[in-house]
Structures are given as structure tokens and as C-alpha cells.
Amino acid sequence: MELEGSVALVTGGAKGLGLTIAHYLQERGAKVIVADLDTEALAALQENMEGCVLDVTRLDDAKTVIKELIERHGCIDVLVNNAGVIYSEAMVNIMNPVGMMHDYHRFRQSITANLDSVFIMTSAVVEQMVMRRTKGVIINISSISACGNEGQSAYSAAKAGVNAMTVTWSKELGRLGIRCNAVAPGFIDSVSTHNALSESIIKHIQSNTPLRRLGKATEVAKAVVSLIENDFMNGVVLKVDGGLTI
Ligand SMILES: NC(=O)c1ccc[n+]([C@@H]2O[C@H](COP(=O)([O-])OP(=O)(O)OC[C@H]3O[C@@H](n4cnc5c(N)ncnc54)[C@H](O)[C@@H]3O)[C@@H](O)[C@H]2O)c1
User: Fold this and answer.
1) Shortest-distance Cα residue to atom 15 of ligand 1
2) In the CATH scheme, what is the homologous superfamily, with its name and number, of domain 7-237?
3) N or C: which end of the chain has fewer CB within 10 A?
């Protein structure tokens, strides 16, 4: 799909990787709309980038916002499901005998934020694409955690679910002219990575990565662009991890 002249919706695009992806799509000529629940970050967006307040875990709100956006812009050609929350908690914490096991409520919260959100947004956007008989591209931002990351039961399970939905949708929706792919970043040099991991763990990751460094947000954005632009890529989960998982 040509990005020039297309309409792209990026969830969680008010900051972090999503903001870099939004800028990349805009530089290539797309009209970009960013959906996020962080109102302060939305208010700080460049003037030429449209922001809308949305909690992507709420189906009814998502349906309403998508309808309004399509009435305003005519269509949504590209959906980038980027919104997510990195979450780490060990399955067993023997240092906390009172609450030793992974909290179930926090497990559910992480699944909702990282898996339900992708289902909800895709469902709301694809419904409109099918009703209006328009083609489109869905890009899900997954993670190499989908392989199973120590200390990340919920987040890993959610991202594995995102990968499975990516492949499922590529089979179901391909015949309707809607492609679906995912990008699975490794450890990216971002605020969220530095908040989630100690400096010693980051050094350990770097020394285990063949390229000996963290990834850049722009490298994730370039992968997103290539999956949108290449019309024969469908059902791909593209790792952007410097070779960490090979
Ligand atoms: N940073 C990394 O190294 C890395 C690695 C692998 C995968 N990822 C994935 O990339 C995506 C972006 O991560 P990031 O590091 O930029 O995170 P981030 O926390 O910097 O940004 C996430 C954005 O999503 C928004 N968001 C969160 N929940 C939302 C909701 N329910 N509704 C609407 N907006 C919501 C936040 O407000 C924020 O603007 C996530 O899906 C994450 O799992 C990140």
C-alpha cells in the first residue's frame, strides 16, 4: 500500500515507539491520527498531527471513535496496534511469603492492556473496512517476549496471543483485501525499557545481542513501513531484535 495519501491510525502513538512510528508514517505522506489515553502527551503533539483520546481496552468507545474518524477522513487504511504496557512479575516470589504467587488481577490487567486492546481495535476498524468494502493493513506491535520471557508471564502470554491473532487474521481477512502483519521488537532504547530494566540487565542484554546494542525506535518504525508498503507480505511476525533470539 502506498502511504502517500493514506489514512493511518496509530494507537498509543502519543509517546514512545508509537510516536516515532506516527512521525515515520506522516513523513511518508500519510494522514496520521494518534489514539491514546495520555491527554498531556496528546496535547504536546505537533500541530499537524491529529490526536484523539481513547482507551483502547473499551470496545464501545473504540467503535464510536472509529466511526467519527471515518466520517471525518473518509476511511482508515492502516491501523497500527501499538498501545501496550510492558509488565513484569515473577510467577513465584519466594521473598514474599504472604503473596508468593503472581497476582491474578494484575495478570488480567496486563492481558487486557496488551491482548484485548488489539482485538478490540482491530474488530472496530475491520468492521468498518468490510462494511465500506475498503482494503487495508493491520500492523500489530508484538514483542520477542512472545517466545516466553522469564518474569513476564502475563506480558509474554499477551504478546504470544497477538502473534497468533496476526496469523489468524492474515488468513481470514486476506481474501477481503485486508493484510495483517506484526513487528516483534527486541529490547529498544526507550523510556519504557529503562523504566522496566536495571542498567546491569540492560548491559547483559547488550552483550548477548550479536549487534551488541539496544535497538532504536526508528528501526521499529522502518519495519512497520516496510510491512505496510509491501503488498505481498501477510501473516508475517517480523523480529527487530539485533539477532538476540537467533
Ligand atoms: N520499548 C521496547 O523496548 C519494546 C519492546 C518490545 C515491544 N514493545 C511494545 O511496543 C509498544 C509501545 O511500547 P513503548 O515502549 O513505546 O511504551 P510507552 O509506555 O512508552 O508508550 C505506550 C503508549 O501507549 C499508551 N497506552 C497504554 N495503554 C493504553 C490504552 N489502554 N489506551 C490507549 N493508549 C494506551 C500510553 O499512554 C503510551 O502513550 C507496546 O505494545 C510494547 O509492548 C516495546
Assistant:
1) 192
2) NAD(P)-binding Rossmann-like Domain (3.40.50.720)
3) C
Q: Can you list the alpha helix ranges (DSSP code H) found in the chain?
A: 16-27, 39-43, 59-73, 104-111, 117-131, 153-174, 191-196, 199-208, 217-229
- Which atom number of ligand 1 is nearest to the Cα of residue 155? 43
Pocket of ligand 1 contains residue 143 by CB under 6 Å: yes
The domains of the chain are located at 7-237
- Whole-prediction pTM: 0.98
Residue 79 forms beta bridges with which residues? Answer: 9, 138
Mean pLDDT of 151-173: 98
| Percent of the chain predicted with pLDDT > 90 | 98
45, 55, 85, 239: residue to mutate for ligand 1 pocket, most atoms within 8 A of CB: 85
Kindly calculate the radius of gyration of the chain based on its CA atoms and give it in whole angstroms. Answer: 18
Residue found under cell 473499551: 58
- C-alpha 41/C-alpha 56 separation (Å) is 16
**What's the pLDDT tens digit per position in 83-121?**
999 999 999 999 998 999 999 999 999 999 999 999 999
CA of 113 to the centre of ligand 1 (A): 10
> What's the pLDDT at 231?
98
